[in-house]
Amino acid sequence: MTKEANLDEALEVANKWLINDPDETTKVETENLISRGDIEFIQRFSNSLVFGTAGIRGARGAGPMRMNRVMVRVVATALAQELLSDDQGDEPPLVVVGYDARYKSQIFAQDSVRVLAGHGVRSLILPRPLPTPVLAYTSLAEKAKAGIMVTASHNPAEDSGYKVYWEDGAQIVNPVDLKIAKRIDYKNPPTEESLADYEDAAIFKGDDELIQKYVDFASSSISPESKREIDQIYTPLHGVGKEVFLEVFKKAGFKNPTLVKSQAEPDPDFPTVSFPNPEEEGVLDLAIELAVEKNADLVIANDPDADRLAVVVRHEDEWRRLNGNEIGVLLAEHLLSKGKGEERLVVTTVVSSGLLSKIADFHKVKYAETLTGFKWIVRPGIDDKRLRFVFGYEEALGFALGDSVRDKDGITSALVFAELAAELKAKGKTVMNLLDELWDRHGVHKTALFTKRLAPEIDISADFMSPWRASPPEQIGEFDVIEVIDLLIPDSNLPPTDALVINLSNGRIVIRPSGTEPMVKVYVEVTESVINGDVRSAERSADHKIEDLLHGVSSLFQVEKD
């Protein structure tokens, strides 16, 4: 197609968006883009955002390649059509809708329920900005046919997002996501007249009772007899976690944590951090400073929609930030040591540490690996009713406990971690002592993440991943390559995905393209056996080996595969 044809097609779409856009800001932006008629205009109106690892996310702005009110209405229309395509019986389907505190989130949620009502679909909208796990819990508890969470989680302040759950309580996967995607008709956006009034009888307004049900559930995640004496610092990173977090901890019997006041209230500008992701360097500095001042035991942080958990612990007067794999195996050991039953199931992803599988073997419970993302992590428990899903995690600070929230939950996981820390404190120990015990039993496992950003015009699969598939290295650093597993090749356990698993002598790397950016991610792990209980020597050796492996990966990426 010629540039002129592309321009004409984009102009046709843009004019329809102008007519149907209720937002003056994006209307003006669209008009400016039309007047320019440049490549950005064509790109903005010649395609649309698509479902990725965790729904649809993007920067706010005009056009179907941005998040805005018209795009939200288009997606909600596709969702309504898919819900109505099945035989629903006598009662219209119900959708639970929640939203965070980012700019436009509430109006995106209100537009969504108005679109649904215009199609005869009932909806239950949560009463105010709330954590994602509250939406996930409510959607499943209310037996809804679908759930919508308007959130961009830990993305930059300029982004908005839209997560969709199905009747099993989990985020949508194939074939449902593909069916909805096929119905996304950005070229013909819905008219204002097709939306119901916000006071329509099909739109139910949720109240505080819904929140209380989640609080009751979450606070019951720990044993009534366990210890509660722990001094905590908490930050919700300018997000929506504070109110529900404090209610859960109070009902569970913990004293109030000390809040990082400058980050305690929702603020869509995230003024104290450049990027509201607790994984990022420096994001938890204010919390750690307060922990030192207050002589606390533990720093707990949620991301802005409170579905992730970050932890910093005090050990021998030093503060140690735990990575997602370390938090995951500590939670798993805590949970599995308390429960019983070989039908119990723990799950993690192909890019997470192999230590969880050894812990599962030790406790004689079932173990499964999935692709990245909680839409996959919760799936083995849904698919096999003989198993009882007790815990799942991914290395990116996501943890799920039990089967009532089929997504990551930064609040229940924080409560259980606090229980673990309090029990250890009562014995004169810290969580680092428990991690040492796990390493002594199963070997030291160290993990790291290497990323390589690529030029936007590069086709990552064809131009970057293909050479690795065609000629994988025989050695990386001092590690011999034992086996290369191509996850694009259909496997009975995993859906095909663009990733490579390279098993090494005493280590592993996983290479996969990012689902949201022009970037390749390399997940690195090394293991080192502990001899005669000398965990520190084994840890030093593992640290040396992981540095060598990271250097080897970096060298290969810069030289051989560019």
Detailed description of the structure:
Among the domains are: 51-206, 3-Layer(aba) Sandwich (Alpha-D-Glucose-1,6-Bisphosphate, Chain A, domain 3); 213-315, Alpha-D-Glucose-1,6-Bisphosphate, Chain A, domain 3 (3-Layer(aba) Sandwich), CATH 3.40.120; 443-560, TATA-Binding Protein (2-Layer Sandwich). The longest helix is centred in the C-terminal third of the chain and has 26 residues, at 535-560. The chain is α/β, with parallel strands linked by helices. It is built from 18 helices and 21 strands. Helix 4 (69-85) runs parallel beside helix 5 (105-118). The radius of gyration is 24 Å and the shape is globular. The two termini are 31 Å apart.
What is the end-to-end distance? 31 Å
Predict the CATH topology of the domain at 51-206.
Alpha-D-Glucose-1,6-Bisphosphate, Chain A, domain 3
The CATH architecture assignment of the domain at 51-206 turns out to be 3-Layer(aba) Sandwich
Text of the CATH class of the domain at 51-206 = Alpha Beta
The number of helical runs is 18
Largest sheet: 6 strands, mixed
Radius of gyration, CA atoms, in whole angstroms: 24 Å
- Supply the CATH superfamily name of the domain at 51-206: Alpha-D-Glucose-1,6-Bisphosphate, subunit A, domain 3
Q: Any low-confidence stretches, pLDDT <50, length ≥5?
A: none
Total E-strand runs? 21
Mean pLDDT: 93
Structural classification: alpha/beta
